[in-house]
Amino acid sequence: MIASLTGLDLATAVAWERTALLLLPVLLAAGLTLGCRPTPREASAAMLAFLWQVPALLALNLLAREAGWWSFPGTDGPRVLGLPVDIWIGWAFLWGPAAALIEMRAGLPALLAGAALLDAVTMPLLDSVALSDGWYAGEPVCLAAGLLPGLLLARWTRRDVRPLARTLVHAGGWGLYMLFALPAVALTVEGGDWTAALHLPAGPLGWLGLAAALLCLLAGAAAAFEFATVGQGTPVPVDPPKRVVMSGPYAYIANPMQVTSAVVMALQAAQYRSPALAGVTVAFLLFDAVYAAHYNRVHIARAMPRDWAAYKAAVPDWRVRWRPYRPGTPTVIARTGDEARRRIAAGFALDAGIALRRRRAGGAGRLVFSCAETGIRARGIAALSRILERRSLPWAVLAWTMRMPLVLPLLQAATYASIRGIVLVRGGAAAPHRPSSHAR
After folding, report:
1. What keywords is this UniProt entry annotated with (predicted)?
2. β-pairing verdict for 331-335 and 368-371
3. Which of 300, 309, 337, 409 has its CA 20 to 30 A from that of 144?
4. 69 Cβ neighbours under 8 A, 6+ residues apart
5. pLDDT digit string, tens, across residues 50-71
6. Phi and psi of 373, rounded to 5°?
7. Domain limits at 279?
8. 29 assigned to some structural domain
């Protein structure tokens, strides 16, 4: 487009175009920030939208390249997986803070429609991108998987609602950073290619490393979901929990997300033999030792000094406990008539420091776990998982797996179906056969 309008050669026109694609979104975001005068929470929401877009756009561009929707020809300037870095950053500013600030005034449907229209008009005019005949098939995918989650995250953060949904987006974004974006950038800097370096582990040591990485990812995700379900906050420092979270992985170590992230990054550094990823691991540890610790002291310790002091005195930052920190004496209620649930609860109650109570047979049938000190009240399979995680670390890993967002509903449904089937079978077997009056 610029080449045809200005008469410049294609290489010069593409260079000017890419500069504009970087600077215009940055200036737009800055102008909207000055014009809208967002509150600190609104500004934080816009920043989170940007942080989501960085790995999401890189992943979507890789998908587009593999699907043949579009590509960025030429070799000038730094690239990561074929995506020019200047276009990548500008795109993240446009779909991140700029879109989030516009959505505050225009609303979500209007913003999505405007973004789709803008892409439909401008992308065929760009000299820096080569579109295939079916590029429009990738547009709704990018809007649904890239723009929409970032806007929803910004909206929910701005309104301080849906902490679990926000945490799901955070977990997905952080997973993309750790397992995809950071390794891809590091290997590009070192002259490698993430897609070529990615491979299955070799030998027992490699599979052991993979198992350790998966275990760390599970613990990190469980810690994030504990922030949402118990603390009503998210792992992001600008959006902290409303209470001191002392359960889940936090009962075993004080900074599970930072430690597990550093371990996963160190394992990837070993897998890819990457000094850059080893440097990222050190950066993670320094961040936790300096900024995260300072933030906890300034915000959480001042807001909840008694709970925080008791927790920090019992749970170390860098050493995993075998037995969890167990504040208070939770109560588990099991229906007397349900022998299976009662025996399960009784079998674990003593070891987990739990007071067991029985409900009359006419009460509700689900197991109930309640702990005032940690703010937890759970039912059914979730209650059983809370009992298990108070025993020791291996049981806790099982409990965290049981509470994963996709796993818990399936376990609850399967348990309900099995119990209902048992009740129906017992009811049918116990019902006496009464002959009809005609038989008499």
Report:
1. Membrane, Transmembrane, Transmembrane helix
2. antiparallel
3. 409
4. 131, 132, 134, 135, 137, 138
5. 999 999 999 999 999 999 999 9
6. -65, -35
7. 203-323
8. yes
